[in-house]
Amino acid sequence: MNDIEYPEPRKNLAGLTAVVGLHLVIAYALATGLAHKVVDVLKAPLTVSIIEEIKPLPPPPPPPPPPKQVRVQTNTPPPPSYVPPAEVVVEAPAPVASITTSSEPVPEPPPAAPAVPVAAPIVNAAVACPNSDQVRSRVPYPSQAERLGLSGKVLVEFTVGADGTVRNVTAISSSNVLFTNTATRAVSEFRCNGQGHDVRVRVPFAFNYG
Predict the structure, then answer these.
(1) Domain limits at 24?
(2) Total structural domains in the chain?
């Protein structure tokens, strides 16, 4: 006998069933027009739209800071209208000694002023001139003053040198010129003693009428 294997009838039946079902579906699509719609969709041009990337919106600005509250104190005294500036002690810079050299000759100092002579001391007339009282007691009365009935006084000053000489006779004061010459002439009769240095002597003369 030949070893020929025949296909199983069950497998053939399943394949036939699938082929028949596919034809039924195609026939139904043709009958209802579904196939034409599919073809139209495939024939229509494809529309491609590019969707732009949506950029995020910037963040909103920060809210403004709240206004500062100003506290008004009713009991605070008003500020002074004038505030004196603070005292600033400015120390003066120390003087800087400057040394300058010059080729000009240094002027000679002026000559010293002559020394002022020191006035001689005043000595009592009785000490310097012992006979002064005798001379004054016999001084003649001026005839003209006697005729006029005048009285007067004269103060005479003179210098007695170291050797006893009398010089620089002058009337310091006189009540009447008629008695001045008589008093100064009487001093020439004084005999004075030297004191070792010049001294001044003052002698009063009195002329009384009657």
Answers:
(1) 9-36
(2) 2
